[in-house]
Amino acid sequence: MDAISILACGGTLDKDYDPLRGELVFSQSHLPTLLAQANHTLPLSVNAVMLKDSLMMDDTDRESIYQACLADHSEQIVITHGTDTMPETAIYIADRLANLPHKTLVLTGAMRPFQLGQSDASFNLGAALMAAQLLPAGVYLVMNGQVFLARQVQKDRARGVFVPKRSA
Amino acid sequence: MDAISILACGGTLDKDYDPLRGELVFSQSHLPTLLAQANHTLPLSVNAVMLKDSLMMDDTDRESIYQACLADHSEQIVITHGTDTMPETAIYIADRLANLPHKTLVLTGAMRPFQLGQSDASFNLGAALMAAQLLPAGVYLVMNGQVFLARQVQKDRARGVFVPKRSA
Amino acid sequence: MDAISILACGGTLDKDYDPLRGELVFSQSHLPTLLAQANHTLPLSVNAVMLKDSLMMDDTDRESIYQACLADHSEQIVITHGTDTMPETAIYIADRLANLPHKTLVLTGAMRPFQLGQSDASFNLGAALMAAQLLPAGVYLVMNGQVFLARQVQKDRARGVFVPKRSA
Amino acid sequence: MDAISILACGGTLDKDYDPLRGELVFSQSHLPTLLAQANHTLPLSVNAVMLKDSLMMDDTDRESIYQACLADHSEQIVITHGTDTMPETAIYIADRLANLPHKTLVLTGAMRPFQLGQSDASFNLGAALMAAQLLPAGVYLVMNGQVFLARQVQKDRARGVFVPKRSA
Question: Which of A46, B25, B71, D86 has the greatest number of C-beta atoms within 10 Å?
Answer without folding.
Answer: D86
